[in-house]
Amino acid sequence: MSHPFSIVEVPVDAADAEEAMGTKFKFWFQHPEKGYCLFKQARPNTGEDWAEKLAAEFAELLGLPHAEYELAIWNDKPGVISPLMVPNSTLIHGNDILAGLNSDYPRAQDYGVSQHTLEIVLSAIANPRVKLPLNWIAPAGITTAVDTFVGYLLLDAWIGNGDRHHENWGFIETPNQSVHLAPSYDHASSLGRELLDSKRQKYIENNSVKGYVGRARSAFYQQPEDRKPLPTLEAFSTVSKRYPHAALIWLEQLANLSFAQIKQLLTCLPSHRFSPLALEFVWQILHINHSRLLSLREELS
């Protein structure tokens, strides 16, 4: 029997320092058991809290390194908390990494950065200096940072995450200056969380969830002159052809999941934050993308 996810109550006066990066209200605070944590407030009617929690749980099922997220409430406002990923180390975001490789890279631009191409990102992560994420046991056959990043793109394609822009991936630099791929983080723009239940109802009644799923776009571009980023499935498919060995390993990780495991996770969300319609819609998204992803195996074998 599944147990509901716990909800952490953050004291009203807990804020130690506000976090300026991103569009959501957030602050750092000291949790008595989890250490230094970031509270991120969910905007009304967005589902950002449950999407972030579910995405982390799905990353765990796949065996991917990921930031930890717990449902939380602060000042009667729903959100999530996330402990500092690697204490005593520095997170270097993708925009700073890419600006270091190309002085013309638009480091300060937030969204719609067409220079954020798969090619330049993979080149940065494939640097031999970049090691596997810290404190993580990789599946057999996953030996490099770029192998691991292939798994991040599979997760994005499975959950429809369109927000892996250049501040939502990065490297961890330790005090001894070793550099590691950061765990996967910030997955709230996924699983159709932005839809109201009335819209979900229409998609379900019209059997058009597949159409919604097909429109999910990544934050990666094929070429700098492109007007739109690649769809999430196409981003993974493109990378899988370049790194077929890693792609097949991550696809096998996905294939080995049982739908019972997945359904059980969905039922762990509290009903006052995750409606039955949201559950059904998320279930269909995961089912459809599971099938679409596994159909790629024949091309790679």
Descriptive account of the structure:
The chain is of the alpha+beta class. It has 2 domains: 7-83, Phosphorylase Kinase, domain 1 (2-Layer Sandwich), CATH 3.30.200.120; 90-300, Phosphatidylinositol 3-kinase Catalytic Subunit, Chain A, Domain 5 (Orthogonal Bundle), CATH 1.10.1070.20. 38% of the residues lie in helices and 15% in strands. The chain has helices at residues 48-62, 94-101, 118-125, 145-159, 197-205, 209-214, 232-242, 244-255, 259-266, 276-294, 297-300, and strands at residues 7-10, 17-18, 26-31, 35-41, 70-74, 77-83, 90-93, 130-131, 170-173, 179-181. The strands form 2 sheets. Strands 1-5-6-4-3-2 form a 6-stranded mixed beta sheet, covered by helices on one side. Strands 7-9-10-8 form a 4-stranded mixed beta sheet. It is globular and about 45 Å long. It comes from Desertifilum tharense IPPAS B-1220. This is HipA-like protein.
Largest sheet: 6 strands, mixed
- Count of distinct structural domains: 2
Rounded radius of gyration (Å): 19 Å
Level-1 CATH class name of the largest domain: Mainly Alpha
The unreliable regions are none
Class by alpha and beta content: alpha+beta
- Spatial strand sequence of the major β-sheet: 1-5-6-4-3-2
Overall geometry comes to globular
Order of helices and strands: EEEEHEEEHHEHEEHHHHHHH
What is the arithmetic mean of pLDDT? 94
Helix count from the secondary structure assignment: 11
What proportion of the residues is helical, as a percent range? 25-40%
The CATH topology of the largest domain is given as Phosphatidylinositol 3-kinase Catalytic Subunit, Chain A, Domain 5
The total count of strands amounts to 10
CATH architecture of the largest domain: Orthogonal Bundle
Please state roughly what percent of the residues sit in beta strands, choosing from under 5%, 5-15%, 15-25%, 25-35%, 35-45% or over 45%: 5-15%
First-to-last CA distance = 38 Å
